[in-house]
């Protein structure tokens, strides 16, 4: 009978470790991608980005690049938290941005350009 209380005493502390992992989410700018280490620097903080994190059938690690704006979520871990889902926001090219600004500026004579 003394064995049962002993087993319970050993099992109860283990239940604390069985809780759900801590998660996080964020958004920011990619500063560096270290493909060989599966690391990505977002807003000067390193995250692990495993090949299993996939967007459009391809590992996200190969799709992000410095300057990319991303939204992401994952699990807190050490030494780096792991990104399990990432969205890469589409950014306009310089030409697309210049064309948009040109369309929005009024003409010199005060009339707006046709849209």
TrEMBL record:
GO biological process: type IV pilus-dependent motility
Keywords: Signal
Coiled coil: none
Gene3D superfamilies: Copper binding periplasmic protein CusF
InterPro entries registered for this protein in UniProt: CusF_sf, Fimbrial_PilY2
Signal peptide: 1-18
Protein name stated in the entry: Type 4 fimbrial biogenesis protein PilY2
């Amino acid at each position: 009978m003394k064995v049962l209380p002993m087993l319970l005493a050993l099992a109860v502390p283990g239940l604390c470790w069985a809780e759900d992992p801590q998660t996080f989410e964020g958004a920011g700018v990619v500063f560096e991608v270290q493909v060989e280490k599966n690391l990505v620097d977002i807003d000067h903080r390193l995250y692990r980005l495993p090949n299993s994190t996939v967007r459009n059938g391809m590992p996200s690690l190969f799709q992000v690049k410095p300057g990319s704006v991303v939204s992401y979520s994952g699990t807190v871990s050490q030494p780096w938290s792991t990104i399990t889902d990432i969205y890469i926001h589409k950014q306009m090219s310089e030409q697309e941005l210049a064309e948009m600004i040109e369309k929005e500026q009024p003409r010199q004579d005060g009339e707006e350009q046709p849209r």
